Structures
1.
Amino acid sequence: MCAASAPVTHVTLSARQVRALVEARDRAENTLDVSLDLGRSTTAVSLSTEGVVGPTGLLSWSAIETIRTDEIGCFAVSGSECRRLQSMSTVTGRLASLYATDGPPALLLSGTLMHRIKGVHPGQDTDLKLAPLHSLKGSRVLDTATGLGYTAIEARRRGAATVHTVEFDPAVVDLQRLNPWSQDLFDSDQIICGEGDIADIIEEFEEDQFDRILHDPPVLELAGDLYGGAFYRQLHRVLARHGRLFHYIGNLESPSGKRVVPGVIRRLEEAGFVDVKRHPEAFGVSARA
Ligand SMILES: C[S@@+](CC[C@H](N)C(=O)[O-])C[C@H]1O[C@@H](n2cnc3c(N)ncnc32)[C@H](O)[C@@H]1O
């Protein structure tokens, strides 16, 4: 289980949810079922001239208006206080923020999206990344880069016995605590969260410790080590014989995908992986130990 998240004293909203509130107010309605957790569930709220009364008290119309005019931001709202969900990393100096989508929010790191949002939302992106790993039932999974925890949470939901996952950036860990869609990270004893650089932490894992590895690093320009031969040799060392790897890379048909993929495949094979296959639908490659 990840270190406990703070008790919830706020609701979490984006323009997608508050639009429905403003429209209900304009139709002079008094109640509405709306999501107060970025689309994860719905709650009945009442509307008044001062604002919206929900489980954490009154949300003012001025706070709601701030959110309505920001197409991509996600906000924690408590009364008239409205905080955009973003955090400056003390380690990388980069801004990390939640980016609203039609599904779970994406992670934006220093202006680069860490999940797909075109054609698929981050929930569907997660399914695509896990499909090449086949069955996860009873398996020991290594999820190399936690991000918002979607792949770790989904791997556990699909029956993984344990999921080890590691996040480097404390600003991303802050966002996990605030993102309603990341909360299962904090509720499952079978998800084991590490904080630090996976390139160091992987050396502490035993040979053959995992049956499945989901390697979902940032783009090569932000995390070159995680695409290097030395790191791939470590992945191969900790993956049990016949175990499966999926390595997310980005659109294989894009100019950068075409540039990066041949080197990735060559280095995976040099590290000992076999049966390396392209998965254009999932933006990555799979391999077996
Ligand atoms: C593409 S995102 C992972 C998304 C994740 N699979 C999910 O479901 O939300 C990549 C993450 O790797 C983290 N990261 C970057 N370098 C890392 C490193 N050396 N060790 C561990 N995590 C790292 C970034 O901060 C970012 O949160």
2.
Amino acid sequence: MENISNELEKIKEFGLYRDLNVVENVQGSHVKIKSKTYVSFCSNNYLGLANHPLVIRAVKDAVEKYGWGAGASRLISGNMKLHEALEDEISKFKRKESTIVFPTGYMANIGTICSLVSSGDLVICDRLNHASIIDGCRLSGADFRIYPHCDTEKLESIFKKSSKYPRKLIVTDTVFSMDGDLAPLPDIVEIARKYKAMVMVDEAHGTGVFGEKGRGVIEHFNLNEKVNIVMGTLSKAIGSLGGFVSGDIDLINYLRNKARTFMYTTALPPAVCAASIAGIKLIQKDLSLRKSLWHNVRYLKERLKLLKLNVISSESPIIPIVIGDAKKAVNVSRFLFNRGVLIPAIRPPTVPDESSRLRITVMSTHTKDDLERLLDVLEDVQRQI
Ligand SMILES: Cc1ncc(COP(=O)(O)O)c(C=O)c1O
């Protein structure tokens, strides 16, 4: 245990220690911590659905009808009506034949990648893909190649040397979670077609946010027919919990039979599925949610241009301000906190060394006053750094 304590001290010394805040009210654009209210600019609850009255109603009704726990894995006796209803709802939403739901997005990525490729195959990954994709690639046992962020020339050069592999898989985030930019999907899909590789996309931050109907970045680029493995999470814009993969029936039946993170874990509580169904329905019905989200994003980005901060130009509601040094980023985050704004510092290993940052995420429920308050505090930050 002494080694553990020493390592912990080192983590602190480098400014990389993580503390937990305790939120004492509901997850909205304002959160209460130690009885004080903060404007939150760090939640993935983009559309405010985690706390929407229709979602809460759906959960209460489901608990009345089905109780809470699922009691077993899906393959034993835990597969309940609402799991099936959720999978059907996602398939319709994502315009795919079939869907498999996992307890989390993390588990969806691990289970799917490890089912699709193994020793003797090739898996290729953008350098800034989410940790769950990287972990899935490592665990799969396949030969694992990483290309520099969004560099399709390097991607193609990897494929040029890939003829010996029987199965090839490229996996990419559609919206990169720490930079907020989009993958060059049309090019990726074209390169994969040329080299006969499978394409898997992670729509964690695309679902509910991009596309005319909120179906994701694939809809935005009109690539639904060309991408056959679509992963997403129910925990961000949908405001609930769980991960999913949508695709053709054979793919989904294959995953039901192969994905260990689906087979060997207890099914989600049915009321969680009810929340997700309600969230997906709201995304399709209430277009004002997405409209106000994008209105806020555009407003904030325009105003941020006037500040002398290192704001990375992004294409999504994720707006990073790169500070660099981890300790400095923590200090800036603390400054914001003292002024009533919650944006924890994102530091290595979540982002590369010397690129610690404030990662702003905008919500549809932020008011103009909320945005002005953030801008006011950032103006003071700019004077200090
Ligand atoms: C791109 C991406 N993929 C996957 C996940 C994991 O999803 P979940 O939180 O549902 O496990 C996340 C969330 O952190 C993410 O940002």
